[in-house]
Design a protein that fits this description.
The protein is mostly helical. It is built from 21 helices and no strands. It has one domain: Growth Hormone, Chain: A.
């Protein structure tokens, strides 16, 4: 299946598409390998399980634990407009991606260094140093996204659903390996040695990924434009949104779905603290998240190519309802494993559907700009949501938090049916 944007490029620049086609298989393979190896690294820095566990050892305040996903989402989503500006109008994106990837490793190194110094500084200083390091990691992780997505949109010119399914599938399997390593370390060593080893393994494995990025083959994009000033780039955003009503509808529906992550960082900790489950549930929880991303990713890719990506948002909105429901029902350990399955499925669905919806809606020359607009728009919501979740716990109870998740899922389902563009 060929995307709408590629069909237009094929008409306007057939020679460009012909050259890109020659590199299709190579770039498909290198992108999959890069994403897969990196999946191992980020699994050791899971903002849903591993990192909240580390922070939980330094504080007994839920709102501070809520800072983990809040900082991750703020750092990942908010700078994406700047990341989009860096690559917007450029004919080549590969080396911009490579340089940001190197900067990202500095943040991962700093996180491992903070864990290594546990006991050297008091907990408050350690928390400050950790969150600063985590922000570096999150910001660079976000800045790379628009250029990376733009590279994919220009080089994966057919069967994008299949591509993202393979990326999620292989990445999930590699991440499963990381989860097994995490389980072994959590079982075999006490804190802080287990976390120190885990973070250092994550850093060392992250150094492999830039090697694959350096091997990407890129044909310069045929449209060359002067770089516009950043202020002009930002001021032009409202006009782009107004000229693209389908994007406006998509953006509003997608933004509300962001609230669905409100409980993600608290499910596993709740299972440990209130159901008296073993600490190894963190590794099991992470394992199920990654495996579900892997397996369901193939389904999402097939559904998107076959029926359009709107249906994915509808299904994962139902999954948000199920998360809240399973947390409230007295199902014990199995209920929380089902929640982990829904979380992984949700992450895979969003990752696959977000990029492909933008590829279909945005003009081919403006892919990175539209990716940046979308993700910067949802940044405040993704940031505040886990903080609100922590506040609900501190002020009320877990039951109130889980009921809130159900309500969010219901509203998201309505909006996905009503607002989300049906493009296929």
């Amino acid at each position: 299946m060929i995307g709408t944007d590629i069909e237009k490029l094929q008409t306007e620049y057939p020679e460009y598409i012909r050259k890109v086609s020659k590199n299709y298989r190579w770039n498909f393979l290198m992108l999959v390998l890069d994403s897969s190896v990196y999946s191992f690294s980020i699994a050791t820095l899971s903002h849903d399980t591993i990192v909240p566990y580390f922070v939980d050892q330094l504080t007994n305040l839920n709102w501070i634990i809520g800072l983990v996903p809040a900082i991750f989402y703020l750092g990942y989503f908010l700078p994406q407009l700047l990341g989009a500006y860096i690559v917007n109008g450029k004919q080549e994106r590969k080396w911009v991606i490579f340089k940001i990837a190197l900067a990202e490793r500095i943040g991962i190194f700093a996180i491992a260094l903070v864990a290594q110094n546990y006991g050297v500084f008091n907990d408050n200083i350690l928390l400050g140093l950790f969150f600063f390091s985590f922000m570096i990691y999150s910001v660079t992780n976000g800045m790379i996204a628009p250029g990376y997505a733009d590279f994919i949109s220009k080089n994966i010119i057919r069967n994008r659903g299949k591509f993202f399914g393979v990326v999620n599938g292989v990445g999930g399997l590699v991440g499963f390996g990381a989860a097994l390593v995490a389980r072994y370390l959590l079982e075999s060593y006490s804190f802080p040695k287990n976390i120190r080893l885990l973070f250092w393994i994550g850093f060392l494995s992250s150094l492999i990924s830039p090697i694959f990025i350096a091997t990407f083959k890129e044909i310069p994009f045929p449209v060359k434009r002067k770089t516009e000033p950043l202020i002009s780039f930002i001021k032009a955003i409202p006009a782009f949104i107004q000229r693209t009503p389908l994007f406006k509808r998509f953006m509003l529906s997608r933004a509300f779905l962001s609230f669905g992550v409100i409980g993600n960082s608290f499910y596993a900790l709740y299972a440990i603290d209130f159901l008296s489950l073993d600490i190894t549930i963190l590794a099991t929880f992470t394992t199920i998240i990654l495996l579900s991303q892997s397996i369901i990713g193939f389904l999402w890719g097939w559904l998107g190519d076959k029926f359009g990506y709107r249906i994915i948002y509808i299904i994962i909105s139902f999954m948000v309802i199920a998360m809240g429901g399973f947390a409230i029902l007295p199902l014990g350990e199995i209920g929380f494993y089902m929640i982990a399955f829904f979380i992984g499925s949700m992450y895979a669905g969003i990752r696959i559907a977000d990029s492909n919806m933008v590829f279909e809606i945005a003009p081919a020359a403006e892919t990175s700009r539209f990716i940046g607009i979308l993700n910067t728009f949802v940044a405040p919501l993704m940031t505040l949501t886990p903080l609100v979740g922590g506040a609900l716990l501190d002020i009320f109870s877990h039951r109130v938090l889980f009921i809130t998740v159900i309500v969010i899922g219901i509203i998201s389902t309505v909006l996905a049916n009503w607002l989300m563009p049906k493009l296929k």
